Amino acid sequence: MTSSYKVYPPLSWRCAMFTHYLYWSSTILLSTLYLLSAALYLTKQTWVRETLRELHYPAPYLVPFMIIIKILGPIAIISRVSLPLSDLAYAGLFFHLILSGMAHLGVRKPLVALPAVIGLVLLVVSFSTQNSARAHPSPYGEMMVNVLTTH
């Protein structure tokens, strides 16, 4: 006689798999956001320069630098050739998203700040779940989880 109930994997295994999928989903979405932004900077340079001028930034100097950062940041996070470089990329993207969102809010354009807010949420989820999905854990990722769970 066979039983009619399903046997599920242990809860800890299911939580680990959920966290694994959460990490990769948020990391891929964050990387896509940055790579599409770099493509926008490359294809619509006049519009990007005008937008940066509205924010009172030196557009001719900033645009090439931002294109490079928006491409290399996600590559450093996904490839994880070097753990310190990956953590540095996370930090750079964090500050970029904070400053970008604040710049748009400063000129009273809250809807334009929405991609920065979405990117910030994706970045926090990706950074805080990276240790469950990667072979070599980041010491800062564990610290972030502890801060988020204790407060």
Structural summary, described in words:
The chain is mainly α. It has six helices and no strands.
Main traits of this protein?
single chain, 151 residues, mainly alpha, 6 helices
> Fraction of residues in helices?
over 70%
Largest sheet, strands/sense/barrel: none
Number of strands: 0
Number of helices: 6
Mean of pLDDT: 86
Order of H and E elements:
HHHHHH
Radius of gyration: 19 Å
Terminal Cα separation, in Å? 51 Å
Q: Assess the beta-strand content as a share of residues.
A: under 5%
**Outline type:** elongated
Helix-and-strand structural type? mainly alpha
Low-confidence stretches: none
What's the layout of helices and strands?
Layout: H1 11-43, H2 45-54, H3 59-79, H4 83-106, H5 114-133, H6 139-150
Helix pairs in contact: 1-3, 1-5, 3-4, 4-5, 5-6
Short summary:
The chain is an all-alpha fold.
